[in-house]
Write a structure and sequence with these properties.
DNA binding, TransReg_Diox_bact_type, alpha+beta, six-stranded antiparallel β-sheet, three-stranded antiparallel β-sheet, 190 residues, 9 strands, 5 helices
């Protein structure tokens, strides 16, 4: 996977929490933040402040040196090959009928880029959402409907869609089988 330090820290937090069988809710309560914030940190959707990061590490009862030990900091010029078996299923706030698989994340020009395979079925209960990023979507299979500010966009296999995902948007599956979409998130520099 990517040598991006933020992704490594996010993955390490999730790994330590799961190893200790601590729930998102319990960690969030101990740190004094929301469950959603912990989820966003673990999924590399936001970078925690130093105070929050240190509180998380303390709540996980991990030594600071051990936590940061062996984080790769050098970028490689080698091509990045990611096997399908390495795609990481992750949860977001609204997931019934939806599945997110992280393919990779990396930084380019100080902007986090997150590449995800997204699947949604007709029984999805996903409501309106927003993401602090711009999105490029490529429909791999099926039919999807996006609703943004009352306007509807229909995407079919092979169609592409780019938009400012900070706007409230709703996605719905119109095909009988779940649709599959490659999503590339471009997060703003922070």
């Amino acid at each position: 996977m990517s040598n991006d330090i933020i992704l490594q820290i996010s993955n390490r937090i999730k790994e330590k929490r799961k190893d200790q069988k601590i729930t998102l809710e319990a960690l969030a309560k101990d740190v004094g933040v929301t469950k959603g914030l912990i989820s966003q940190i673990e999924n590399s959707r936001t970078v925690p402040s130093l105070a929050v990061l240190l509180s998380i590490i303390k709540s996980l009862h991990v030594d600071l040196n051990d936590f940061f030990d062996n984080l790769a900091t050098e970028a490689s010029n080698e091509p990045l090959v990611i096997k399908a078996s390495e795609h990481q299923l992750f949860e977001k706030e609204f997931t019934k009928g939806s599945q997110y698989y992280r393919i990779t994340s990396f930084k380019i020009n100080n902007r986090l880029v997150d590449i995800v395979l997204y699947k949604q079925s007709q029984d999805s209960e996903k409501g309106y959402v927003s993401t602090e990023a711009h999105e490029f979507n490529y429909m791999l299979k099926g039919i999807a409907k996006y609703t943004i500010e009352g306007k509807e966009y229909i995407l079919e296999t092979g169609d592409s869609f780019y938009y400012d995902a900070r706007q409230q948007h709703l996605t719905q599956c119109l095909s009988t089988e779940p649709y599959e979409m490659l999503v590339i998130y471009f997060f703003d520099e922070k």
